Amino acid sequence: MPHRVKSSYGVAFFLLFALSAFAPKVWQEVDMLKRLIAKLTHFESNYPQEKAYLHLDKPYYAAGEDIWFSAYLVNSSDHAPSPLSKVLYVELINPQDSIFQRVVLNMQEGKGAGDFTLPEDIPEGLYQLRAYTSWMQNFPETYFFHQNIQVWNSRESDLVPAANFSFKRAGKGDSVTVQLEFVNHKAEAAGQLPVSYVVKQAGKKSGPRKLTTNAAGKTKTTFFLPDGNARQLAQLELSLGQGKDKAPVVKSMLVPLPTNKLDVQFFPEGGALISGFWNNIGFKAIDAQGLGQDVQGAIYDQAGTKVTDFTSLKFGMGRLGFLPEKGKQYEARIKAANGTETVYPLPPAQDKGVVMTVDNSKPELVRVKCYTVGYADGAGKPSGLHVVAQSRGAVFFGASSATGRDVFQVDIPREKFPTGISQITLFNQAGEPLSERLLFVNQNQQLQISLTSDKPTYKPREKVTLQLQVKDAAGNPVAGNFSLGVTDAHSVSPNPYAANMVSYLQLSSDLQGYIENPGYYFSSTQPEVLQALDNLMLTQGWRRFVWKEILQDKYPALTFPLEQGLSVSGVVTRYSKKPEPHAMVTVFDAKNIKNVMMGKADLEGRFSVPLPPLTDSSKVVVQTRDQKDKTQLLVNLESFVPAQVFPKVPYAPAPVSLSDPQWAYLRMNREQQKVDQSMGKGIMLGQVTIRGRRDLDANKSLADQNTLHSPHEVSYSVKTDKFPPGMSIMKSLMRRVPSLSEVNGEYVLRGVSSLNIGAEAGSGLSNEPLFMIDGITSDVNGVESLTEVDIERIDVLMPGAPSAIYGTAGVNGVISVILKRGASKSVTSNARLEGIALYKGPRYQTTREFYMPRYDKPSEVYTPDWRTTIFWNPTVKTDAQGKATLTFFAADAKTTYRAVVEGFTAKGQLGQATASMQVK
């Protein structure tokens, strides 16, 4: 059954108020509007949306560093902390669109914090951070948070490549010419550098070819790439010589798609091009990497007559206007820089329809005009029109015209619009959407945030104190949750128009496609910026829902649950594979058996039990019993399946020359690396070959992989090579394990059992331990049927904490026999351990504290400090007076520090601010 959440909006009441206050009675057709509102209210109540956002300490990183981030989870509707989910998955995705690392955060009041440690052998490239909840997986992946981050590896080599690709069609493929340039971290040309390369595509590899750079560190080569599905994954793998005593360094880069042909799309305002009437048309031009490209061109009719010229304004977007004539077709002709001309057909003009225009330039109101065009004979003309304005699922205005007039004008008071994107939709008398338009309204309700340092300048290693003051838009102090990072501005230089919390939640998260430089649209209120923002509204579509689907009751399937915490899910079956109804399920920490959670399976044997609180060393065991307290069952745990990864813009970016701050960043990273080496924190790497993530079970035998226990949990591990030939295995084992004895014909491990889950410990008829052979349950007869030459070793786990991982089956201890590889014995036993499974799914990341050296106390050891992230605090809380105090110590570099603070309040008020300070 779908999870139902009560809507927080009195939508119907508010709309009726809007109708009575602002719309003449002739417009009002409340029944139709009520139906539209009811559909939207149902969607908002039953399919609530969440948004995730990550605040990072800096925009790029190097091998061996930590990515620190503060996570925010909010309602889509009002940006208040989300009460729906408390589990957030954060993933680091590599340039090949595979998940490189994943952490799971425990979100409280919409806040969490985490980090990724970048290994010293991480390959360079453009990585992606992705964040989402389980609930968000019910909707398109575009709803997830995404952010691109560049990762360099100055620790594997001193060489930085730049590449410029050009393409020429050659048969069924491209002739690719690449200009390569290599410099070291001092920005010096790598002259006379031996380079060899291979081209990889579709699992095939070309033969190696050799090159040598000139004195300027440059060289070029040409190769052929055939067309095909694998074209976008083609790689150029370079092997760079470093001298006689050093192994070559291998660097790989994706070969981008040809950029000489643009994708240009045209978007008539409201949705359709109508002949016989003036039409406003937005357009957007993007290259093969998905990035906007500025263009200029002209519109021509089918006879080749020029109608109008056009030029993009910003990021490949712009607008044009003209009056299409009935029966004519139109096309756009765009000239490239090299003089070539490309033709793009415009959408065909309709002979009749409704044109809706929105004027967002007036200070007090937003004017909506609707024109019915081409209905001279009256056939098919809408008899009623309805305008609905909503933002993020909340309707705030509605009006109707039931007279079928040719011009229908609605003035919506600007004060009614919330800050952010609003969607104005025009419906006909049957409630069918005819036209739609997005617009952005900024009510300037952001938090007023100030950061003040206690001194104008500081000395290296001097204590810095920052005062944070937060007020709402009216100037009243407010309490809230924030995160703050301080970086060296000389080496960490973010894009001034990069996304921040305000631009992402209020703009990017509600639009389709990639938004370049979203901060630009919040940079000023100059006419050019406002025009560029409205061009964005014309060309990038609303993505949260589609009216047509809602009106037809087409809703997404809710496959993924709301997670208020991590849980263990699965199904309990009998050995016949039939489900075991109402099986009792116990989940406990084998390291702390008092840490227990209980649950019960349903009629189909399915269960979901919350995870108990865990530590880093916790080992989670799932144990099941039937209604008769028997454990002859099988437990099948559900595996965590991450959301599918899709390529993101920019596609296959080629390495480019670094900026001055980026050069400074890498130089400081290498200096810090030397410090780490001297302190024993890291090593310099030579040639590094990445062969995938380390598999902890890779070197284990199949038998060891089948056992639940780890080596450190074994009380005795006995080799059998010294066992007397021909003697009983158990008799021989008794000689090596003092705690093993024979009592009344049974073998017993003498120890105090501490496991008491669901039944009294040791209450069974037998006091014998659990016997296993190669991870498979057996009995003493199965063990005695073996000889010492069959056995690699025998692990003995004493009763109590060591054997607790096997649940009640191991209450009397465990004797686990591991056979030699190749040994074959026919042992009659169950194929799996009865009623027991080991949980290996996600667990919360243990929060690490950002390391901050203290220089207020003398130290006998001087360690240079070349950090680029000087301070990071992901959990800053302001008090009722809106204040917080933060302190840290400056590093060694004489430079400028940039402090960035972001955050929100319990009411969804957002804010972001920066400050700077000098170290001299």
Q: Secondary-structure map with pairings?
A:
Blueprint: H1 11-22, H2 30-46, E1 50-56, E2 60-62, E3 66-75, E4 87-93, E5 99-106, E6 111-117, E7 125-132, E8 145-152, E9 159-169, E10 173-184, E11 194-201, E12 204-205, E13 209-212, E14 218-226, E15 235-240, E16 249-254, E17 263-268, E18 279-286, E19 296-301, E20 306-311, E21 317-322, E22 330-335, E23 341-345, E24 353-359, E25 365-373, E26 385-391, E27 394-401, E28 407-413, E29 420-428, E30 433-441, E31 448-453, E32 457-458, E33 463-471, E34 480-488, H3 501-506, H4 527-539, H5 547-551, E35 567-573, E36 584-589, E37 592-600, E38 606-610, E39 620-625, E40 634-637, H6 660-678, H7 702-706, E41 716-719, H8 729-736, E42 740-743, E43 746-749, E44 770-773, E45 776-777, H9 780-784, E46 791-797, E47 814-819, E48 836-839, E49 869-878, E50 883-889, E51 896-904, E52 910-919
Parallel strand pairs: 2-8, 32-52, 44-47
Antiparallel strand pairs: 1-3, 3-6, 4-5, 4-7, 7-8, 9-10, 10-14, 11-12, 11-13, 11-15, 15-16, 17-18, 18-21, 19-20, 19-22, 22-23, 24-25, 25-28, 26-27, 26-29, 29-30, 31-33, 33-50, 34-49, 34-51, 35-38, 35-40, 36-37, 36-39, 39-48, 41-46, 42-43, 44-45, 46-47, 51-52
